[in-house]
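tool_call predict_complex ligand=2-deoxy-2-amino glucitol-6-phosphate
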Amino acid sequence: MCGIVGHVGPLNSINPAGAPGSGRSLEVLLDGLSRLEYRGYDSAGIALVRPDDGERLTVVKAAGKLDNLRAALDEAGPAPATAGIGHTRWATHGGPTTENAHPHRAGTLAVVHNGIIENFRALRAEVEEAGRTLLSATDTEVVAHLLDLDFSARLAAGEAGTVGPDAAAALLVESMRAVTDRLEGTFALLAVTELAPGAIIAARRSSPLVIGLGEGENFLGSDVAAFVAFTTHAAEVDDDQVLLLTADAVTVWDAAGNVVTPNTWEVSWDASAAVKGGYETFMDKEIHDQPTAVADTLLGRVNDRGELVLDEMRIDPAVLRSIDKIIVVACGTAAYAGHVAKYAIEHWCRIPVEIELAHEFRYRDPIVSEKTLTVAISQSGETMDTIHAVRHAREQGSRALAIVNTYGSTIAREADAVLYTHAGPEVAVASTKAFISQITACYLLGLYLAQLRGNKWPDEVADYLENLGKMPAKIERLLAEQEDMVRELGEQLADQTSFLFLGRHVGYPVALEGALKLKEVAYVHAEGFAAGELKHGPIALVEEGLPVFVIVPTPRRPVLHDKVISNIQEVRARGARTIVIAEEGDEAVTPFADTVIRIPAAPTLMWPLLTVVPLQIFAAALAKARGLDVDQPRNLAKSVTVE
Ligand code: AGP
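tool_result ok
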């Protein structure tokens, strides 16, 4: 939650003939913030520094979305800067006001922060006792003052007035180390000071932070989206590292104060992947990205001998053969992807699979051993609850496999192995293409384990892979044939106040996901149920005209199919308006359906890759018909980096 971005360019640059990257910190920060706005949009702000004699540190901030900050900047008209830091906020300490917006200023410096400082009350008392007046309710402002108190003391210890910019930057590095050593909780912190206008000083513990390495300029961001328009060369930041960025150097110190060389990588996303590309919203665009997301996640997984290979699988095959249980830890949509995985992996591999909401996992003393494989699913790779679940599982001796979309993220780095989904950047808060690619990656994992453990013959694995390979074209066709009708349905039902979603088998997690999509983007009450559970209570909710979505399994699985047909009849008999998602040619549903959404045939276990798509389209259309911002729903943030 919260997005932070930093840029530092050459000092000699505040003139039109300056070096590349010069004086453009404001441009970089605004571009970065617009790409990070999905992480929080309660307020936004920037701090800019420049080396001349005028105003050397400028802070501009505004409550509300980034456009409000742009308007405030138009009014303030800041001069070109050599370095700057920016922030887009999801409020934790203190409401979403301009006062609480970052950056927070203290003395000569300004600070942005993502995370939560748990001991901030004691530290606030200390800062106030030192004579500082705090203007906000945030934990971050306390950190800004702590930094400034320490920094001022170090400056005063030198000869008055003789500390040049390089020495000031070095002293602020020391202050950053001293202050962060005292902080409890999580943070990615960036600081600039007018005494060192060519530098950013940063630190990280358990909140995301990555470095962007440019030509004569350098960048920082909560994720690579912050700087991908300017450089694709990125470097990792580990916990408890402190950094000094200048235009031509990045210095990283580890917790012991040693200079270390960070791991670097090339970002494969290009900036155009994170723009709307002609669609009205990111959610629309990402729904349409889904055929490519599935295809890309499947890409390059089969060797010359037709075997499934997962190059990233760094866990010893002997260990994978010996596991007797899989626990999937994840939150929200990612947990529903794990729920689908349970059906597939148990069926293919005969290994019990438990699904655990990551935030419940470590608090219930779970039974985990060396024979447990923990699978963490996360689009961002930064969900704090999931990070803690991975850490807890590993402490108990379990190997952790991450299914993650964001390269270099914390979960990817802390797990024993990573299976990357190749969905590209997902910007809309509501997860769509990430869900589908997570399910695809889970299928790959299941088939890989089945192949390795001998549960399936090679030709069986090859058959499944062939069927998976056909899914992108089927999603494409489904979009082409059903999108308009589903959109119209969403518009027609925009005034409804309640919806039910029913499914059996793999249709059950899809029902849960359909309800979540509607809740989060349209703010409508919606519940997903296992269809068989209906008679055990939820059917009491059914009344005249209540829209009920029912995901019907293929008629080629009559045991499942016929039971769901009975469930449709049960709700219809009580006045429900039934919206049925059924396979093409399944005429058994027709007499009981007010609306039928037709889906191309596919193997039962792969059905979620198709059935979820109309539910995503429906939620987006209904929300738009209500005049809502589907990309940035109220109260939410894309990446939940606090517990
Ligand atoms: C779903 O639309 C939400 N964005 C949310 O449930 C999300 O899936 C969850 O917070 C997990 O996020 P992650 O995949 O980044 O870990």
